[in-house]
Amino acid sequence: MISKQTILSGNNLHKQFILQRSASSPSGVLTALDGVTLEINEGETIGIAGESGCGKSTLGKILAGLIKPDKGEVCYQGSTITDLSTESLSMFRRRTQMIFQDPFSSLNPRMRIGDAIAEPIVISGKEAASARRCAVEAIMATVGLTPDQYNRFPHEFSGGQRQRIGIARALAASPAIIIADEPVSSLDISIQAQIINLLQAMKVEYNLSLVIISHDLSVLRYLCDRVNIMYLGIIVESAPVSALFQHFLHPYTEALIAAIPRINAGKHHSRPILKDDLPSPMAIPKGCRFHTRCRYVKDLCHREVPPLEEKRNGHFAACHFSDIIFPW
C-alpha cells in the first residue's frame, strides 16, 4: 500500500492573544494554542472538534496562513511557509482556501456574487477576461447555483445559498486544500445535510484535502477520515474516525460523544455529560487541564500534564489512565 503524502502540517503551534482591560473585564493573556501538531495528507479529510473557546478556529486560520503563530511552523508540501519565495507563497495562498463560519458576513454586500466568485480567477490571471464568466458559471453550476444569479447581491440569497457561494469562491482558486470553519453551524438542519453532501462531492470531484472544524461530532463522523479533539488549546485525542467513536480513549471525548442526540439511547443513555463550564483560556488549570471536569480524576492529574501518546495503532490520547479507564 502506498502511503499518502503530507500536504499541510502544523508543528508545535502556539498562539496567545493579549486582551486589553475594559470596564467589565480585566486584561490578560488568552492562550488559544499551546503546542499543537497535526498533519493533513493528500485526499484526506480531517476533523477538528471541541467546545467554543478551545482554539479550533485559531488553528484553522493559522493553517490557512491568515494569522501567524507565536511559535512553531506551518509547512506546505514539506516547506515552511515563512521560507517560501514570493511566487511559492502566492501558490500556497491559492492552493489553500478557507470557508468561513458565517455565510452572512463573509461576503462583500456591495459585490455581485459572480464577481465575488471570479475574484480568485482575476487575481491568479489564469483565465482571459472573455472566458472568465463562463468559468464562473461552470463553478456555480457545480455547487447548485444558476447563471441568472450571477449579478445578484448577497442579501438576495438564503444562508444555505450563501454558503454555496463561499464554497464556489474557494473552488475558483483551484485549491488543493479547503479549510471549512463550522460550515453548517448557522444553517437549518435540512440545509446542513445539503452542504455536507456538497462538500463530500466536491472532495471527490476536485481531489481535495479537507479540514472540517466543527463542534458537531455527528458531522465529523460522516465527513472525516480522522478526527482531532481539542480542549483548551491542545489536542487531547486524535484517531481514525471509526476508532474514535468505537473506542475513545479520553474522558473528554467520551463526554462529547455522549452529548450527541440519539433517538434510541440504549446503553449510551447513562454516559455522563460534561459538568461545569470550560475553564477560561486565561487561567488554564495546572496538570491535566481537563481534571476540573473529569469524573475519573486522580491525584496525579492535578500535578502532571499527560503527553499526547500513541496508545493504539494511529490512536493518540493525552490521558494518564486511558488504558485503565477504557481498556480494549
Tally of DSSP β-strands: 12
Number of helices: 11
User: Strands of the biggest beta sheet: in what spatial order?
Assistant: 6-7-8-3-9-10-12-11
How much β-strand is present in the residues?
15-25%
Shape: globular
Largest sheet: 8 strands, mixed
| Mean of pLDDT | 90
Question: Keywords, please?
Answer:
328 residues; alpha/beta; 11 helices
Please write out the topology.
Layout lengths: L5 E14 L8 E14 L3 E5 L6 H8 L7 E6 L2 E2 L5 H10 E4 L13 H12 L4 H14 L16 H13 L5 E5 L7 H18 L2 E6 L2 H7 L2 E6 L2 E7 H6 L4 H8 L40 H5 L5 E4 L2 E3 L4 H4 L3
Parallel strand pairs: 3-8, 3-9, 6-7, 7-8
Antiparallel strand pairs: 1-2, 1-4, 4-5, 9-10, 10-12, 11-12
